[in-house]
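Hey, resending since the last one bounced:
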Amino acid sequence: MSICVSRASRWLVALWSVCAIGATPLGTAIVYQGQLKQGGMPVNGTEPMVFSLWDAAVNGIQIGGNVTITSIPIVNGLFTVTLDFGSAAFTGNARWLQVVVNGQTLAPRQPITAAPYAVRALDAPHGHSLDAADGSPVDALFVNNSGFVGIGTTSPGVPLDAVGSSQTMLSLSSSHTGGTWLNLSNTNPGGKGWNLITTGPANGEGTGHLLFRNGTDSSVVMLLTYDGKMSLRGELAMDQGNTNAGTVAGGLRFGYASGEAIASKRNAGGNQYGLDFYTASTPRVSIANNGNVGIGTTSPAAPLDIAVGDKRFQVRSDGGLVPGINLTGTGGNLGILRIRNAIEMWPDDGGTRPGKIALVNAAASAFTIALDGGSGNASLAGNLSFGSATRQMLDLWGGVYGIGVQGYTEYFRSDGGFAWFQGGSHDDFTFNPGPGGNVLMVLDSKGYLGIGKTNPATPLDVNGRTRTKSLEIVGGADLAEPIEVDGDVEPGAVVVIDAERPAHFKVAAQPYDRKVGGVISGANGLSPGMVMRVEGDAATNGRHPLALSGRVWCRCDAAYGAITPGDLLTTSATTGHAMRVADDKDAPRGCIIGKAMTPLAEGKGLVLVLVNLQ
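The structure tokens again:
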């Protein structure tokens, strides 16, 4: 809605619409609808008006003559007139409408938008067209004799044909809570309808997702979330054309050109109709059609077949025996499963030696940790201690550093603090990750948690950006910033910007002061909910929290008028106190502190204020 206000009078006209009218053939008249006020009140009765058309918002050249209407009915300020400046008035160039009410010229002139330019459709060849608002390009929108619509083309070949150089050629947006829908359907027998939906808050799947929905039973067939997750109602069929010949082509691929995939060879030979798992475009693990699993081979000959060069590890069943482990290879020790430098299992074919799982020292001269299958004993060369508490405890050092379970609770005990390091090496200094290491997180002896720093100053101290889905603050009701105020100031006081000292404030003492900065938070026991500051910046590290938004208790003086909830508040002549705004028109721009939420009938006192500087 455009607003016309004359600086020389108290007339005010609101333009509601300007549009072309007509039937067959299309006329050249336009309808002007508006609202007329005088002294802020809607006009009733009749008024004479003169309308004229111009080629500029200010000065310029008048187009055609005046349209004078001596008596226009006005009801509750609303009026409607029909104006005809002729078809020659609209050539595709911008136009402005000037209105004179009872001899008073209203300003500014009203721009005439694209609707009246539809009169050019009578003259468009082979159909109807509209030029751009500024006249270029010509025939920006075109409808041919078949009803085909062209955007950027006068030769549309389909019902809607858009031609241009923009990267985005079609954009659909809606503020509907049920999402933005694109409906596709075929009306032939057996044809189906589909809904393509980008979801809104009223959709059960959540906001910001993409749905493919069956238009017949409204069921969701596919869901694609905004973070790239996809779910299907039915199956996902791969390579139904049987094109895979033992490569990643036609399979389920991960990433872009890095060669990770799951594929099924469809032609004869090799692992036909099995599954192959690829990395770097090379099959690493294969599941044959009969269920055998191969690692390093696409033709597994056993339920588990691992091939490394000319050596083979197989889990298989031989000669009707129970499944066992078969090791083959040149120079191998059959019957022994040996993992060098880690674990050794020594089964004894003669039955004279129990099986063992052992960790052996570097010299291969002794076991450092061993589990004896004969006695069931576990032996360690080092110390593994469990305390004498009712539940077991892992003692790390001195009995005061450990891990245990107590009263259905797992605990971590420390005589000092806790630290999480990345990289580095051991160092005896507290919270030191050692050379090349990084401190990820510390929990000091006071219970203060520091993330990205070793000296947390508060119960939670984060060095970096913090992201949370929902934050609930229960200690205050406003957002504040610490400021510096000259002189003594109490919580709830109104302060203004100190024009003589940059970045400083002072207590307010002047009514309707446009330099008002807000209210000092903390009065009546209501502390700031959040305080923003920049470490090391003196301008943002003052002693007094200034409420920027939210609710605070404010010192007010009802001597200038009783305060009721909903009243606008501004500065007063009483030092540090606010008062109600008696008349909105008397309040200069920028002097409003906010709205009162509690009353104050007389005297001075605290009023709960919703801070909203204006």
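Confidence is low (pLDDT under 50) at residues 1-11, 14-25, 116-126, 332-337.

Sorry for the duplicate.
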